[in-house]
Amino acid sequence: MIVNDRSFFLFTKLVTDVCIIIFSFLVALFISDNNVLPDFYIADFGFILFLIAGWYFTSKSNSLYQERVQENQIREIYKTFNNIIWQLILAVLFIFAIKEKDYTRSFVLLYGALLFILMPSARIVLKQVYLLLYKKGRLRKSALIIGGGDTSVQFSKYLRENKHQGYHLVRYIPGTLSLANNLENSYKGRGLLVDGVPLTGLEQIDEVFISEDHQATYSTKEVASVLSMYAVRLRIIPNMYNMYFNGKYSFSMLGGFPLLSYRSEPLEDVYNRVVKRAFDVIFSLFVIVFIFSWLFPIIAIAIKLTSKGPVFYLQERWGKRNKPFMCIKFRSMKVASSDIGKNGKFRQAGKDDDRITKVGGFLRKSSLDELPQFFNVLFGEMSVVGPRPHATLMNQESINTVKNYMVRHQTKPGITGWAQVNGLRGELTEPSMMNARTQHDIWYIENWSFALDLRIIFLTFWRMVIGDKQAY
Length: 472
Fold this sequence. Notes:
The chain is α/β, with parallel strands linked by helices. Helix content is 48%, strand content 12%.
């Protein structure tokens, strides 16, 4: 017997997580209170409800609960760890807000330790149990595929080979359907015909997939009309088999028209843009007031004493939607230096570059030369985190040589970025390195979240502390 309530898997995951939160809270409270059963107050119940609500909303932001069971196990555990970190931050904020002394530091540490141990362990066990159930035919939906081209063939093959996706393929109907006869027979109560033979058993089908394909001669609308007589859920597979998609496309509606976006961009949402912009302004003001204000005179004097020329260096770079702006940096090269090499192409700063001054070498290695760009952020030309802006000449050279290069200009450039914290900063000597940087920038655009920005900022400071071999 096939149980067709596959969503029970997601419900089980959520219930398990809630139970672990409650259990960890009680155990941490018990141990931190000298192994004495504590008296429960309204604040304790409120604290637990706050933590559960916080877990639910942060898990939605992290896409922790997926509608598919097969996801890279390491990535799922990583997302779980991210959620646990947010859970601990919320716990500390709650304790600070209510100023409750009963919740000690040991309570927070114990609560966090239990979550870090129990959450991943439970997910690994639960996932293996459900994979076993799926492969044995439990908790799967019975499916019928109607199609006449490559898309339907590949999709039917996929369902047969990947039983863990929760579908049992009852039948695949290739070729064309005699729709006129089908409609007539359906109205007469004879059912659907496939190659002249009545198709029975639709009452046992949970979902019907109709493949739209350029090789098909039937009308998807007419097939859907016939199938509407049965209690089945209809799914349409759009004719996109030969189109390139990276898995991040999204659907939306404009009036009554369905729209398919080539890639998902979280920063197109006005709420996300407001959050990012607010953080940019607050963070930039903090750096300018508390760091730049006293560090600027020191760096300026050092630059003036060691080389002739201005303190700042302005270079035209491209921002969002290719809009040019003047990027501000501390000057780290000699004034007479040229950006164009002997081959007539843009000359990147390299290791042991004779154009770099002694102070400039230190500034570049420590990334302090980028400090004035916080003014670019304040002016709205840049963001704290985003794809690093390149010089205009470098952009022009890369447009025709690097695939999807201009996609990185769909958002504001940043002082630091996902590519930089992954070792892709500095001189790019091979085309493959620029391709890798571009792919990292596109990944950032498609997967942006506020938590990701905070992670990149932390990794940037960490690399400044330990040093970066690519910084020169």
